[in-house]
Automatic annotation (TrEMBL):
<dbReference type="InterPro" id="IPR037272">
    <property type="entry name" value="SNS_sf"/>
</dbReference>
<dbReference type="InterPro" id="IPR000175">
    <property type="entry name" value="Na/ntran_symport"/>
</dbReference>
<feature type="transmembrane region" description="Helical">
    <location>
        <begin position="215"/>
        <end position="237"/>
    </location>
</feature>
<feature type="transmembrane region" description="Helical">
    <location>
        <begin position="95"/>
        <end position="125"/>
    </location>
</feature>
<feature type="transmembrane region" description="Helical">
    <location>
        <begin position="249"/>
        <end position="277"/>
    </location>
</feature>
<dbReference type="Pfam" id="PF00209">
    <property type="entry name" value="SNF"/>
</dbReference>
<feature type="transmembrane region" description="Helical">
    <location>
        <begin position="390"/>
        <end position="408"/>
    </location>
</feature>
<feature type="transmembrane region" description="Helical">
    <location>
        <begin position="174"/>
        <end position="195"/>
    </location>
</feature>
<keyword id="KW-1133">Transmembrane helix</keyword>
<feature type="transmembrane region" description="Helical">
    <location>
        <begin position="12"/>
        <end position="29"/>
    </location>
</feature>
<keyword id="KW-0812">Transmembrane</keyword>
<feature type="transmembrane region" description="Helical">
    <location>
        <begin position="313"/>
        <end position="335"/>
    </location>
</feature>
<keyword id="KW-0813">Transport</keyword>
<dbReference type="GO" id="GO:0016020">
    <property type="term" value="C:membrane"/>
</dbReference>
<protein>
    <submittedName>
        <fullName>Sodium-dependent transporter</fullName>
    </submittedName>
</protein>
<feature type="transmembrane region" description="Helical">
    <location>
        <begin position="41"/>
        <end position="59"/>
    </location>
</feature>
<feature type="transmembrane region" description="Helical">
    <location>
        <begin position="355"/>
        <end position="378"/>
    </location>
</feature>
Amino acid sequence: MASARGEFSSRFGFVMAAAGSAVGLGNIWGFPTQAASNGGAAFLLVYLVLAFTLAYPALMAELIIGRHAHANAVSALRLISPGALLRKLAAATGIIGFIVASLILSFYAIVAGWMIAFCLASLATLLGMAELSSWLTSFGLGRNLLFMLLFMGLTISIISAGVRAGIERWSERLMPAMLISLLVLVGYVLTLDGAMEGLRVYLLPDFERALSPKLIIAALGAAFFSLSLGVGTMLIYGSYISDRENLPVLGGMVTVVDISIAVLAGFLVLPAMYVALHNGVEIYNASGALISEDTLIFTVLPELFRTMGLTGIVVSIVFFFLMSIAALTSSISMLEVPVAYTIEEHGVSRHRAVWLLGAAIATVSAVILLNFGTLFGFVISLTTRYSQPLLGFMLCVFAGWVMHRHTLLEELRKGNPDVEQGWFWKIWPWYVRLVCPVIILAIFAQSLLG
């Protein structure tokens, strides 16, 4: 069954694809700006704790269920569910998951389109095409629609090629290119005046702020969104893993790569903000809050690049190219969630499923653009603040309470016959059963209550 569906051909291919899904705009854009708004190092500290104590166990729940079933989220959750009522709940959870994944992609494609537009705008500036550059950086319906469609086209073309020729092949190319670009930019920005002040804010924590409920909620959302949890992307990627692989090791590798790139992005964005401040660009308002947190990357950073002359134009090209790659490696996993369901549950060919679903999501994106002020923020909050944590809670419940303990152990033994003797098996089953759901619900309740 697995071979007919497609399977990752190597450990490196899976790690690059899964890390590519995890590493996206949430890491390079969202994480650093949230860190800047929530105490810098205090946010970083809480994020690291939650990533390892909540996000990694939840990631393992998805990978284990996915590989056990070698199927889409709906089929996988139904397979491990005894009884008609549980199977209905499983199907509902899987369906809601792919709807949420599609909604995330609908706003993600808009933002990714902006990244491509800003990258091309910097290139146009370098070539002396000022009018074109101005159009590319202006917020207009025509520009937004054009680049959203371009980004969706890129995503569709990769997914159409399948697991090995599409997802794995392009992840192995794009992820190293993204990491090299990020390292080059970090190395350069840290040499500029003002960067050390940003580094101090990023690395020296205010422990009082680390206990703030607002900060903890923001860090949980960042951890779940960053690792693409709750919506079935990691479950689907888990279903394409060979039975020979050691799942706890693979999950640990993905978590470490994801967190490392998020932390590394902080070494770029926060120092860059203080370089901008040093160059006369305002980044905080009179009350001390960060100006335009959600649009920081399109306001403060372009202003910084403009103060750097020709070098700034080149840095801007590399930076927005990096952001475009990060967006693309995540978008292909989001689209794969509804595609896998449509192929396996309804017998539609991959090519047809990808184009139909891609067109449907692009249509939703267009509706959001036509009602931007009302829908854009609403869809982001609905999916990332509320839906993802709740879906992550449900997947922890299925792994901890519904999937039989012996079935879990046998699945883990496939890639590691001695897993029962290790720390993972001694801690993870009860941890994902008792600790993760309680903490996720507690933080979610705090989020609702404000």
